[in-house]
Amino acid sequence: MTDTNPATTYTDGGVNTNDSTQRTLESMAAERYSRRQAMFRGAGATTMAFMGTGLLAACGDDDDNAPGYGGVTVSVGDNAATSTGRVVTLTGSASGTLGTTAPSWNQTGGPAVALTGTGNTVSFIAPAVSTVTDLVFTYTAVSAYGESASGTTTIRVSPAVLGFSAVAHSLADVVVVPEGYSVTVMTRLGDPLAAGVAAYKNDGTDTDYDKRIGDHHDALSWFGLSASGGVDAANSTRGLLVQNHENITQKYLHAAAPSTGARNEAEVIKEMNCHGVSVTEYNDAGGRKWSYKQDSTFNRRITPFTEMSFHGPAAGSAMLRTQYSPDGTKGRGTINNCANGMTGWNTYLTCEENYAGYFRRDASDDALRTTRELMSLRRNGVTSRSGSYSWSSAATTNTAITRWNATISSATATSADDYRYEMNQMGWVVEIDPYNPASTPRKRTALGRFGHEGAFVRIAADQKVGFYMGDDSGGEYLYKFVSNATWAAADANAADRLAIGDKYMDNGTLYVARFDADGTGQWLPLVFGQVPPRPASGTNYPEPYVFADQADICVNTRFAADAVGATPMDRPEWTTGNPMTGEIYLTLTNNSGRTPATTNAANPRAYQNNPGTGSRNNPNGHIVRIRETGDNTDAKTFAWDIYMFGVDSTDYPSNPNVNVSGLTPANDFSSPDGAFFSRSSNVGGQVNPLLWIETDDGAMTDRTNCMLLAALPGHVGDGGAVTIDNGGVTQNSIVGAKATAANLRRFLVGPVDCEITGIDTTPDGRTMFVGIQHPGDSGTIAAPGGHWPYTQDGSTPAETTRPRSALVAITKNDGGVIGL
């Protein structure tokens, strides 16, 4: 999501501080072990466990270690404790006359873990556990005469805790992470993606953006790549990083100020190519030392020029027909790619969000449109007389550029003569096969057309596939699409991945959510014959909108959601799902249009951002979560609550009507945007998965730059009912358990002016990738607002150094799982 920025003429529509009351690890261990069985070294043992790597082992029993003639003696140290996700190192030693067989460690009790290393020293990642669990390891050495000696050590593993100290607020022009973590800047705007493409000069003279990393890094996903170039979903050392490029910071792309009036065609092509999606091969040289492969055959840019095909109910509809595609089955490109989804069959979903603002409609167009068309254009926001960046004003016959003018060319022309319906070709979920650079992306019309923020895909055995989607605009809705087909596990390994997409994404039911005041909700089907006409309302919608068919519902999904009585939400952004419970989380970033009179149970606050100043609205946003009835994707009902409310806790330290979740300066945030649960392929996503929350804030940026937080959330229903007083107007709601230092902490703060957006990890959870979007965009070419990423290493760049959107890799110095 990118907010309004007049300057670009673009409009979007260390130490553990766990304060929990759980018993200490030492007290639990003292009850379980005798002095002879274990020695816990007080704070020292606990600190080693909490901080990650330590020399963790236990004294062997004397009789077990008694040497025979020519035997050996082993020593293995002390027992110790740790928690899920920490690196544990076991060290043993042997003395005497050793045989040819090297000493070794083996696990002899508890949940199995993978031991790394050989001989005297091995290590492992503490597994995910729901209760305190003991792991037993045996160190054995064999003498030259065949006699053996062994010793054991017990490692007590506790459930996951947040394993870092909260990062403080920051206004610095760097990415700040906790002590014990490192940041590596990876692919940046303009980095070359093909052999022979020159290094980026960053002075506005660069071209060939169809072969370079795009701008405004946004949602991203990691796809593991095998040594032979095929799918290896578990690979954490080689993979394809697929990332959206939502928008541009126009002024930094050109040598001088962008052309005005009739735009320069070369400038327009450059700007267009900086949008879209990139596919980039990444490799770990060992120890999480990352680089990208410039000349990989998998590297690819998907831009507004890339051919697309339409699938689902609206494919071939008259409402998608253009001069380029008279039959309405294909189109060119994708635009304003914001959040995303990752399917169970190894494809990527990119979502077209604020597409509407790119289109121009001249004043003459109104008279040539039907009332139905005008209502649709207004409801979907296609009302600009110039279009974002005025691309269509370029003096060119290139229809890939002129198509941004959606004006009907004449009273006698047909849709085959112009681009009157080009805007209907945007606003979709687009499926991409990252493993096949020659494949044509497919726009999945059954999932509806609106300001798509994301499309989280939930797959459960013996269930239909569910897709959860937000429409990022004030007063819009949460949607769900459910496939007709039940998930077949074999499809996860299919060779024709886009054909599997046809199976699960072209036929099914589209729903929109209604949130009821009692903490329940209903999924309302958007099916032709079941959706009534959308009633007339005001001068913009002077007559009822009667749907002609399912294609019409897919194209005009907002109208259909209006018609069935869906709940207007505070800018529905990303969706993500808890991989253990199936609960769905929806970020609601903020809503300047929310008032006390228009609050509802799921959007219950309207307050002043600065106490005592300004109007009441929802400047800091909140996060809603739902749990499907029966935990089934095909459920028609659900339970819901508000997981967390954003707030500036300095302004509102204790006001229960605003700081509803009890945030403090260690975990407060504003405008939640990106959301991601750690992958279930690593311990961060198991038992009690980590939730990561990214922000895109304008309300709290006087105090801190945008941020990334880590949470250990509970479950729907772990809180209760509240009544919020919005200045004399009360609103009842259902909220989750309050935030504490144990369950929510700030993990990262970004550089000046940025939005933190885009997040994924390698399957092992030991590298995290995060997008830093539009840093330093508040300044001018001569004096940019910031200079990141050139400041990340502590350098002081020249005052004219232009900032660049970029992706960062975050690793834990001890090699452990991120966040734990």
UniProtKB/TrEMBL annotation:
Coiled-coil intervals in this record? none
Residue ranges annotated as compositionally biased, kind Polar residues, are 607-620
Return the InterPro entries for the record: PhoX
| Chain spans, region Disordered | 1-22, 590-620
Query: Mind telling me which residue stretches traverse the membrane in this protein?
Result: none
Low complexity composition bias: which ranges? Answer: 594-606
Q: Which Gene3D superfamilies match?
A: 2.60.40.3010
Pfam families, per this entry?
PhoX
Q: What is the name of this protein?
A: DUF839 domain-containing protein
